[in-house]
Batch of 2 targets.
Target 1
Amino acid sequence: MLLACTVCSVGLAQDAEETMDKPARKAVKNTFESVWLIDNQSVMVPIKGTFEFDIQHRFGTVKNGFEDLYGLFAPSNIRLGVSYVPVDNLNLGIGLTKSNMILDGSAKYAILKQTQDSWAMPVSLTYFGNLSYDLREDEDGTLYKNETDRLRFFNQLIIARKITDRFSVQVAPSISWQNFVYGFYKVTGTDSSGYEIKEVANEMKHEHIAIAVGGRYKITESMSLIANYDQPITKHTANNPNPNISFGFEFGTSGHAFQIFAGNYYYLNHQRNNIFNTNSPLEYKNVNNSTVKGGNFLIGFNITRLFN
């Protein structure tokens, strides 16, 4: 009996020692500095109890040159937003955008987190969803026939990896949905009375699939290079959106993140940017209606303030 107890005690002690020797799997920190990566969300979700205030600003495009100081004096677009993390890994937000007075609500959830032991979990995975509502007045019904036509939706999976202490990348496929699509009437023939038979031909589809690729490289502890590329995948009958190329600098502290960059997106709403971007990164028409190579870019900045 004594021998059996001794053997059990030794076995339990060995198990406890092995458990103590095995380090806990810790999540990688600071894959990105901010919840924003220029026009897209990054994979990051702040810690529980964090309140965030966002100011996003986009100037006009450079196509008019010195006439409007390369877009700096052109009509600009602004978004003000707030968000809060009520429980671990979940961020809920709301915002209002100047262009078309777009009200949006969002939810972001960190599904998986990359671990320091990369074999355990090599990437981080976050879901981001956004719902937007057009607040513009439409008393005569020229904009929308139904209230639900004002709604647009955006769903995205963000897959990221912190490759080194300085370099992080992410890939984010997305699907946007618009309840209302602009169309035109097409005459398909005549009936027995000689009246034209018309049907609506939609210029765009309701759904739009795209993919975004972005990254950050830390130059110093507080300054980084950031870049992002958005590629539309869905082909519409007409009015296909242009891709977006953006690049710039990020400056971060424990409570602030400031990004300044050049890019092609203007709308400050994920679904509108993906579906309706008309700014081409390859060429544009200048004031003389001549095609200019080099891209139709605009200057923008994001300011994020965290309270926790």
Note: The radius of gyration is 25 Å.
Target 2
Amino acid sequence: MTKVTPPLPATLGELRRSPYSEERIGARGVKDEIRDNLICKLRTKEPLFPGIVGFEDSVVPQMINAILSRHNFILLGLRGQAKTRLIRMMSDLLDEWIPYIEGTEIHDNPYRPISHDGREKIAQLHDAAPIAWLHRSQRYIEKLATPDVTIADMIGDIDPIKAARGGRDLGDELTIHYGLLPRANRGIFAINELPDLAGKIQVGLFNIMQEGDVQIKGYPVRLPIDVLLVFTANPEDYTARGKIITPLKDRIGSEIRTHYPVDLEHGIAITSQEAWLDRPAPVEVRVPRYIREIVEQLAFFAREEKKVDKRSGVSQRLPISALENVVSNAERRALRAGEDLAVPRILDIYAALPSITGKIELEYEGELKGPDHIARELIRAAVGKIFDRYFEGVNMAQIIQWFDLGGALRLDESVDSENMVRQLGGIQGLMEKTGGLGLSSNEPDAARASAAEFVLEGLYSHRRISRSEEYEFKAGEPVRETPAKEERRPGYRRQFN
């Protein structure tokens, strides 16, 4: 027999006799509610922010302290540091359901109504007043701060249409059109990119943060709103587009600094979690560990590169988008070659330049060289760094000697794995070195080709062999110094010397 869950109380009288008594929720504000639920999660060791990697010993403890202190707080950090994701996960700390007076715009607490409509319903209906229920997902309101936001959007204003329809004077409290802040009553109100909010609008937040109320323009009314305020901001915005005015900043209880991943493993974990790699396709995709490491190391080097603007930052979206493009290029090659397995190669990272160049802001010196040149330098440096992790101290003299004696290898991006392994196998000692990556001779050709090319690219990155690149043009077309876009094919040839 199926167990039937009893319905939630539908009237104020039923609510008083339920576990949602006045003693339990009557005077408890949203900050107390979040604090209580956080304490329960800490005691039971439940994960607080699942999916957030690398903040366990830095950002998360500071957020916990802010919540336990009942602070309004701000997350301050560069782009792509999971600020928005963190504040959206705050709603999981709210009660799953809370009761409110049905029909009230600002979800009045049945035991302590603050709106005129809520007070009237309780006064007239008493215990028969209808009760509705609000889910935690409806108690999180987020606003992206833009220069066109008005004080009416945030706080509220007169609604002449409401006045006309109800036949009321404009001074009547029932003609108020509530803004986002009052509508967030008994919930979380988040403002993204706070410095973009005009200074005069930031002033409108003073009362709610210090006195716990809002004052609607033109009305002698005080609404003691119950809300947790959370903000995000980018330090660059303080000078680039706006600033947080000092009195508002003083009223924010805690300023919490976010950061990029502090080590490669954290970055790889985030990128693997967020990148769209498990995709439906007739081709199986297998991404080698060293490819993931190179893509992540690329982002780390970009954050340290002098030619890249550090004030803007290098978002974690760079390795995520780059890895997706790397996989797509390998997937495209396998589909064209009729192969069942796609294994990304180093050349696929170079093919992912469109997902890299748009995510780095360059200083003057970098602009002179161009984003493509800087991105290629970063890829080369990343390959060299990861190559050393696998092959530091390994004797590569046999491979280098093959090139020193006049050997040359010309690789086409579109060549299939079997032919590429055949070409690479002609270099003395090369395929044996792939064992340092954990590969055996029984591995598929796609995996062996990728590993062998990584070895060659690593030697090139350390300038122990040379390499050149050239675009491949359509058959029958003359080769020109600067080909038109429509004459280019997606790939290029690579020649190791």
Note: The chain has 24 helices and 16 strands.
